[in-house]
Amino acid sequence: MDLFVVLVICLSILIFLFLWNQRHAKGKLPPGPTPLPIIGNILQINIKNVSKSIIKLAEDYGPVFTLYFGMKPTVVLHGYEAVKQILIDQSEEFSGRGSLPVADNINKGLGIVFSNGETWKQTRRFSLMVLRNMGMGKRTIEHRIQEEALCLVEALKKTNGLPCDPTLLLSCAPCNVICSIIFRNRFEYSDEKLLTLIKYFNENAVIASTPWIELFNAFPSLLRYFPGSHNTIFKNMTEQRKFILEKIKKHQESLDLNNPQDFIDYFLIKMEKEKHNKHSEFTMDNLITTVWDVFSAGTETTSLTLRYGLLLLLKHPEVTAKVQEEIDRVVGRNRSPCMQDRSRMPYTDAVVHEIQRYIDLVPSNLPHATTRDVKFREYLIPKGTVILTSLTSVLHDGKEFPNPGQFDPGHFLDESGNFKKTDHFMAFSAGKRVCVGEGLARMELFLLLVSILQHFTLKPVVDPKHLDTAPSFKGIVSIPPFCEMCFIPV
Questions:
Q1: Is the N or C terminus of the chain more exposed, i.e. has fewer CB atoms within 10 Å?
Q2: What gap in Å lies between CA 18 and CA 71, rounded to an integer?
Q3: pLDDT surpassing 80 at residue 15
Q4: 179 is an annotated ligand-binding site residue
Q5: Helices H / strands E in the chain, number of each
Q6: In whole angstroms, what is the distance from residue 216 CA to residue 235 CA?
Q7: CA-to-CA distance for 107 and 94, rounded, in angstroms?
Q8: pTM of the full predicted structure?
Q9: What pLDDT digit, counting tens, does each position of 234-274 carry?
Q10: Which positions bind heme (predicted)?
């Protein structure tokens, strides 16, 4: 039998399986655009900007529809009511983590972010407990952020007001905060290990948001063996995990079972307590992956938001001036800002929230999955179905945020200029899969941004009118465009 005949037979089997799957699911899943065999709806989606395609498809198919990324169906939720119903009202049934092959290849279903079942429940519960013990949401972690903010300010002063790309420095600060929680130490901003780790984070964030990774996630079994940028992600993650393992080994040598000093210590003590439990979720592999989850999430999302935030403040100097006036009035120049200041700084608080709303950092959220067969509205969604929730449709809802495409802190202010809360603010997702480090990230964004604006005037290299604020890539995350700026000491 020659190769051509084998390929025809294999293709025929795949088409048969696809059509059978289509008939099997008919009448249960929500309607959507007609998929093609094997490739599904991939030709009907702009893989350079999936969230934009979802908005257009929602106009035709409504707030709930089905897309096929390859041969597997994905139920898409668009708009606040549908997203809220999935993430909050029926959060238990939709609390599974859908497959994301580019991450699954290394994480193997372990850790917090990409795990399921007992692994997820126990690891998440334990990690939240440890993070709170380490001071998340308390004064202890606030002091660490304040100290790191001063280090960041000193590093920015060394730019001497000249044009610079602040990407690395804005990554160093949040990276050091999370390092102090995980590893009990921080790094100097010139430390080669720190800069290499940040390089891996930055590189992976960009690659993960490219069209190639959208294709890889749709066809992992095929593209896994092809050359491509997914291999760079795998290599970078492997190197980061080697670094984490080295740190763990040093912790094992100095571990005091009665006096844990950081996240790794707490996990190692838990492993020791459960060493006779054959079904324990607290294993070395899970420790490495959990630390990587906390490390990466605690570094990259905050640094991306800071970078994008400074770009928006450059673009809108009138907003920056109002923030600095509020900083002068409430904080002054002679002390570090603190979280107690936030309640007296409604405009600054609104600006931080508007930055997160406008940049739409994780447009389609990380994929969820049904934990059992679920009746949702008039549909029956089988267990294990991937669920995509459009956070763009919530954060850019024109009814809640008039002119959602405009950067306007007024979206979070009432008529009296007081800060206005809204249930539509889902920048950290919502429900059972809400970001574990939300409290830490909120604190970092406020304290770091206020510290920068307390000490510097931001000066663009070009006329603010010519600054482009559209993301350079919009995939798993929204990547801000490259932008040089000057930090002029005040």
A1: N
A2: 6
A3: no
A4: no
A5: 17, 11
A6: 16
A7: 21
A8: 0.92
A9: 999 999 999 999 999 999 999 999 999 999 999 999 999 99
A10: 435
